[in-house]
Structure formats: structure tokens, C-alpha cells
Specification:
Layout (H helix, E strand, L loop, with lengths): L23 H50 L2
Family: Belongs to the EcnA/EcnB lipoprotein family.
Pfam family, one: Entericidin
Keywords: Cell membrane, Lipoprotein, Membrane, Palmitate, Signal
């Protein structure tokens, strides 16, 4: 009993035809979506970076205080 492979098992996604926008309106809509996604992504990255930099600043400040206290104790 040989089973035939399913028709979807042999489809290579890289060889599927891609759909390109046909009209100016479709191209403009795609452009707007791309800009919106980029804006949201960069906004999230900026918020995350601010929190990370703030945390790093606190860590450096804490380390500086520890070094300063150690220096004062060794006098």
C-alpha cells in the first residue's frame, strides 16, 4: 500500500508567485502600513531603550557610590 504524497507536501514557499500591488492606491496603502509598522516598532524600541539606559545609569551610580565608600573606608 503505497500512499501518494499530499499535494501540499511538495510546495516550496520560495517558488510561490508573490502578489505585487497593481494600482497607485494599493501601493500608497502598503507604504502607509509600512510607515506605521516602522513608527510603532521604533517607538517601542525607544521606550525600551530609555528604561534600559535608566537602569544602567542607576547601576553605574550604585557602583560609583560603592567605590567611593570603599575609598573613604581605606583612608
Amino acid at each position: 500500500m503505497d500512499r501518494e504524497p499530499s499535494p501540499t507536501a511538495s510546495i516550496d514557499p520560495m517558488q510561490l508567485p508573490s502578489r505585487k500591488p497593481q494600482s497607485i492606491q494599493e501601493r500608497f496603502a502598503m507604504f502607509k502600513r509600512t510607515i506605521a509598522v516602522a513608527f510603532v516598532s521604533l517607538s517601542l524600541l525607544a521606550v525600551t531603550a530609555c528604561n534600559t539606559v535608566e537602569g544602567a545609569g542607576k547601576d553605574v551610580s550604585s557602583a560609583g557610590r560603592a567605590v567611593s565608600d570603599a575609598a573613604d573606608d581605606s583612608k
